[in-house]
Amino acid sequence: MSQDETHTIDIIGKPSRHKIQEKIVTYFMLLCSSVAILTTIGILASLTFETFAFFQKVSFLDFLFGLEWSPQTALRSDQVGSSGSFGAVPLITGTLLISAIAMFFATPLGLLSAIYLAEYASKNVRAVVKPLLELLAGIPTVVYGFFAALIIAPFLRGGGENVGLVISSESALAAGLTMGVMIIPLISSLSDDVINAVPQSLRDASYGLGATQTETIKEVILPAAIPGIAGSLLLATSRAIGETMIVVMAAGLAANLTANPFEAVTTVTVQIVTLLTGDQEFESAKTLSAFALGFFLFIITLCLNIVALKIVDHYKEQYD
Amino acid sequence: MNSVVMPNELGTTDYQTELIAGKSIIQARDVDVFYGDKQALFGMELDIYENSVTSLIGPSGCGKSTLLRCFNRMNDVISTCRVTGSIELDSQDIHAPEVDVVALRQKVGMVFQKPNPFPKSIYDNIAYGPRIHNMTPSKVELDEVVEKSLKRAGLWEEAKDRLDKPGTGLSGGQQQRLCIARAIAVEPKVILMDEPCSALDPIATAKIEELIDELRQRFTIIIVTHSMQQAARISQHTAFFHMGYLVEFGETGDIFSAPKDERTQNYITGRIG
Ligand SMILES: Nc1ncnc2c1ncn2[C@@H]1O[C@H](COP(=O)(O)OP(=O)(O)OP(=O)(O)O)[C@@H](O)[C@H]1O
Ligand SMILES: [Mg+2]
What we know:
heterodimer, A: about 325 residues, mainly alpha, MetI-like fold, 2 domains, two-stranded antiparallel sheet, 2 strands, flat, B: about 270 residues, alpha/beta, Rossmann fold, six-stranded mixed beta sheet, four-stranded antiparallel beta sheet, about 35% helix, globular, binds adenosine-5'-triphosphate, binds magnesium ion
């Protein structure tokens, strides 16, 4: 067949124009997405760099296993006495204590409301409650911080006094409970999605065998949804660990090494804030320690998020 | 065979067949079903005969599944669905207040269009029903029920070495037989099957059809199917539906060889549907 033979069906088109258009669109989109990616890489790089600088001054083991946190280094070289100690353990335990209180409080409430919403609530109730819960997630955390410092903490302290408990005005309990309220919508909304993703055919199978609604939820729906629920709890934990404003306002600055929820504790995020606010000498170990803490926090939440998302994704695939 | 010809609202006719051999176990009388304001079934009058296979046929959307789901009150699960009229199982009205749907569904089991094993082991899939109904106090008895059900469903040879493996790991046809085993493990009287072979290949379908024929000895089976050949092969009675009305009911042989209604004739010869 020769080239210039005329065809009745024309499929040749004008390649040049279409190809250029496609290319422009593709590169433009690539550019847009690389802004976010490059920024992330930049942040990570500076974080890593400063963290290395910090570990030139303070040993890695002292940081990771040291039991005392008091980052006051000498401001002038001739000053004596305060050389600073950078043991992160009290910060880590403080963070874990508060996160644990938050999860302990939020897990049952979040899960039960998810089960209620997904399985029991009528359409009308669902239409009201779900947006309300999601509204809760949209409240700025500084407002929760307020709430913790001005209402929860005094309330706990007053209540404690009445029953003979000493609860300091800044306590892990106040911060943990408020943070719990903050993450309830996160847990309930994610778990609600997971429960809804359990196929209707499994419910039908169970009802068809004569199971009651409670039996169906307990024996079929929850077991099928457990991996996804675990994923949503991990995401919530990672959120709690990274939360700052509430703890700044409610938990205090005292780096106490304690498991007592009635005492003031401090967290990794709070210390980063206090280290970097105000006038700081950039090269000092004190300032650099903030980067080390940030790096540490980043690694932990990154791991938690990756594991959680893996679990949730895997779970979703299972039923597609 | 005598038939009573009754005019209905559309001016067409319903054929009701009397005196079909065998004992009637379910009687539906004047059953209307609504989804919200929309009526899906109109004045359904139907008898289901014991230890026989009854197939429900008709074009898509004519209400076959809706009727099937009436028999074990699965329509209760759909909030918009409302059923009126009377359905009697062994001379008891299944909508009577003293009826427990849990007990009803134990007696009237169901197999669905798509195989839907629980994401549990093969053993636990079968044991699910007996456990919730407290039918088997001891592990030994439960083991026996599991084995007996799998044998009756023709799955024992294939499954006996992997009882602790997930039921979802079986092939489609095996999964459907697992679902049948799961349904018969609670000793039902009636088994409802909604297009149980539509997701299966011809070989798996043949196995299920063979199984249905065996199960007829112990159970009464009502099956929805889109395959005329299947209805002709496995059922003793056939009901043809059209747009929410029962058009014709009778012995399968009669329906396929000498349909009385023109719509039935058109449907089975492939002209509507
Ligand atoms: N859950 C529901 N909500 C509202 N309407 C429904 C619902 N289920 C079925 N219907 C309607 O009721 C009518 C009968 O539906 P049904 O599922 O019983 O038909 P069918 O004969 O089983 O069809 P098919 O052969 O396609 O399975 C249809 O018009 C359908 O749209
Ligand atoms: Mg159907």
